[in-house]
Structure formats: C-alpha cells, structure tokens
Histidinol dehydrogenase
Amino acid sequence: MKVENLKDINLKRLTRKSYGDDKALELRVAEILESVCEKGDEALYEMTEKFDHVNLRHEGLKVTAEELQGAYRDVGDNFLQALRRAKGNILRYHEKQKRISWLEPDSDGSILGQLLLPLQRVGIYVPGGTASYPSSVLMNALPAVVAGVKEIVMVSPPRPDGTLLPEVLVAAAEAGVTEIYKVGGAQGIAALAYGTESIFRVDKITGPGNIYVTLAKKQVFGTVDIDMLAGPSEILILADESGKAEELAADLLSQAEHDRLASAILVSPSRDLLEETVKEVERQLEDLPRGEIARASWETYGAAIWVNDVSEGLALANEIAPEHFELVVKDPYSWLGQVKNVGAVFLGRYSPEPVGDYFAGPNHVLPTGGTARFYSPLNVDTFMKKVSVISYSEEALKRDAQQIALLARREGLEAHARAVEVRVKRNLSL
C-alpha cells in the first residue's frame, strides 16, 4: 500500500454503505423469513442442517442447563475472572445512562409527564462463523438488564458438533440471558421476529451479524424494532508525529482481522509516520493468525492518508463517520470538541480500540457504514420505550378548549373539537 494525499483519495470507497443493496440476496432472505413464518421449527431444523450442517432434531434448539454447567467447567477460572471484571465495568458504565420517569404538576391542577418503561422481551443475535464473540453477549445483554428487561433471548449458530462455544454460553449466563437457542442466520432473526413453536417472538432484536442477518433485520423492522443495520467493522486513526508505528499498525490490524470487508484507515500530517506504519503493517501481517483475512481487508479497504494538519484530519474523520476513531495526538482533549461523527472515540496512545471492545465499559455495538452521522452506540435507551402522560384538570380544559377546538376544525376534524367542547358544557363555535 502507498501513502496517498487527501486530494487523491476516492472517498466513495471509504464511505461505502456496508449492508449493500443486493436485490437477489434480499429475495433469498425474504424466502427464508417466509419459510420460518409458514413452517416454524421445521424450517429452523431444515436450515440449520442445510447451512450449519448440524441436525438438532433429537436434542432440540434450546440450550439446556446441563450444557451451561458443562460450559462453566470448560472455560477455566482465568477466563471467568476476566469476564466478570468486564461485566462489572460494562454494568457501571450503563447504569449511568438510565433515566427515570417524571411527572410535573401545574398550578391549575393538570399533570404532564413521561413514563420510561423497559421492553418486555428482547432478542440478541451473537455471530458465529469465522470467530465467536462472548464480548458481544455482554454488550447486548447487560444494557437490557440495566433497563429492566425481564426476558432476554439469545440466538447463535451452532458449531459443527451442534454446540455453542463454551465462552459464549458462560457469557450469556453471567449477563442474565434467560433463553438460548442454537439457530443463526436470517432464520434466527425470523424466529425472534415472528416466533415458532419453540421460540416466542420478541419486541426488539439487537446484535451484529453477516449480510444475511443484516438484511433479515432490515426486512423484519416494523414487525419488531431493531438496533441498527451493522456492517463490517471500521477503524480510523488520526495520529500526529507522536504516534508509534508499531502500535498504530497493531490497532489497524485489530479491525482488519475481523472481516475481509473491514476498513482500517490511518490519517496523519506526518508522511514519515504513515510510511513507517505501512511497512509495520506488512511486517505484522506475516505472523498474524488471521493474516489472510486482515490482508484482504487492508489491501481492499485500507488507506494511509496524508493531510496538512490535525484539523484537516478531523474534518476527514467527520466526513467518513467511522465506527471506531482513535485520536493519537498530543493533548487529544484539546481536539475533542471538533469530533462530531464517530461511533466511539479513543483518546491517546494508551486507549487502543480493543480496550473498548472488551473491558472499559462503553458499548462496542456501534454505528457503521457512515451511520455515525445520525446514530448512537447501543445503550440503555435502546431497550426502553417512552410513554407520554397527560392529566388535564377541569380548569385547564376550560382555559384551553377554545384554542384546541380551533386547531381541530382547521384540520377538518369536527369530532375532535366536539370531544373537547362536550366537556366544558358550552358551544365554542369558531
């Protein structure tokens, strides 16, 4: 890879919409959704056998208590200790997000307010495939727990032996997941959205997945709510001459190793740092276990971009709106006010992106594909709904009736006007 000047960069390549508009694929997903609607569990068994090469008809889709107990035996004490530390950090962070219902009385006796209520039943999707993510279990389930959700249902594709990764099962148990099913892909999203004989439908679906999962979430939206349309992982690092090439290269590859479609971008006013980091990426790729995936990502969607100064680099970051944004510059707090469109910002060289992925506390389910321009990370509000409260007094209704009736009649809604007037016992024809 060569260092490129900002004016020569094809920004369209770097700001692509990750979930795409593949009409043929959307049709295939629609067929899967329809099949689950019509055939229920039978469709889930058929597709699990077809796509995951696992026959679950005998043992069923639901993870048993015995499987959970076995998972605890398999993971080891060190993993469990680290998981519980991460859980504590995530809970503490998200507990600060929770808001409460409010009621505000007026001197005329009326009361207005807002109830903040948890959703009753939510579904979380946990990817399988090329990697498994116990951290995603914590990030999806724990904000729901803080919000007060009582029923948290997890689906995840089984491994070839018909099991889920022990670490994923233990994370689910620790995070308060109430039901776990071995089903993935678009069929798993369909089961959560529409329900089957074994899986009762949910109110909202969260969690990232492959393109089939993303398109399925897109199509079931409206039947249920969803968190977002998550695409491949992204990182943009803005570094000045204080950055260290070895560290920056490792950070870029930490996202490139996720997926061949992942995006890793380094921006700097220091051409020497850019060139040194590009060389360091090549060196680190040589012995990276997921090096083939990371190299494909780096060569297709990676970039090393030279800018005039940090301010120009920030403007570029705000235009691209990356999922993860590392600001590795001297005194990063002095630039924080210029950060506008990113999913999460990591300040300084001691805040690499994986700290946020696993341990610090903020949620790692973040907007991708440029949607950080208008979307937020997964949070406690994701799992809550707001109900307006209106309690008018007789005095307030008499005071406002004439104006309410006026507005109603201007919209041509006579019954609206009369519904007010009948209560104040006088004709307010206007």
